[in-house]
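Summary for the steering committee. The consortium agreed at its last meeting that each partner would contribute one worked example illustrating the joint modelling workflow. Our contribution is presented below. We chose a case with several input lines so that the handling of multiple components could be demonstrated. No manual editing was applied between input and output; the record is shown as generated.
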Amino acid sequence: MPSQPRFDVLISEVGPRDGLQSVSSIMGTAHKCAWIDALAAAGLQEIEVGSFVSPKLLPQMADTAQIVSHAAARPGLTVMALVPNLKGAEAALRAGVHKITLPVSASPAHSMANVRRTPAQMVGEVRAIAALRDAIAPRVHIEAGISTAFGCTLQGLVPEDEVIALAASCVAAGADEVGLSDTTGMANPAQVRRLFTQLRAELGEQAGAAHMHNTRGLGLANCLAAYEAGVRTFDASLAGLGGCPYAPGASGNVVTEDLVFMFEAMGIRTGVDLERLVAARQALAAGLPGEELYGMLPLAGLPKGFKPHNYAA
Ligand code: ZN
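What follows is the complete predicted structure of the assembly.
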């Protein structure tokens, strides 16, 4: 199922994967299902529900196949999972995901540390995964997310032409779309606009999502810059869960509630009901008691007289 936005933009919720794998406590299966149900009930149309990795490495993700079957039973929801390699992709395809996302790092140092493979070896993995998909689940959509696209904590600057060349290699290897991730929270809006403009010039409609972090407070500004460069799919995490914050009080992933509020306030339709979205924080808190929840909109509430643009349709 390709992620054609039914509204003006598609918000891809990554909390159940990116968020849960970054916290030390493990959310139980029933709590994960209840949280995903609350997210879908708020109008989110795409959810990254988990990852297919070794349960020894990430015990938080051991039940991902069960979570996929639960989420896939919801009509209209695109169920996405992260896979680090061919083995994970096979498990994801057999579990019934609609979309898989594979992290391909532009920084060789980060790539070795994260998946113990070079960027070129990861492109080979994309090719093998696309062949397997064609053979056993031809409708499944494959996304490559270029991690450390805007800078790397190990290597520092990542040359922009290397990022774009890697993205083009992923498409040539069979990825349906390629997005850019600010894994380390180093991006700024000028850089985001420049890189996504180049990506769209190179890949056209196969240019994918913006995955921005709020580590240094620029998450929303970077999303807006990406929107202005033509991006229409945005990853975000409810309550900003995950993303390895570097500083106390600074969240990792862009907060879904704040991002939806920004777009809706601008008249850019997301399809998401803000009140129900904020209510979904209760399901998150119930499954992860004591975990810190971020977000400015939930703290301040909707402005007086605020008219959401999504309910009428
Ligand atoms: Zn993230």
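Residues 19 and 241 are 5 Å apart (CA to CA). The chain has a mean pLDDT of 93.
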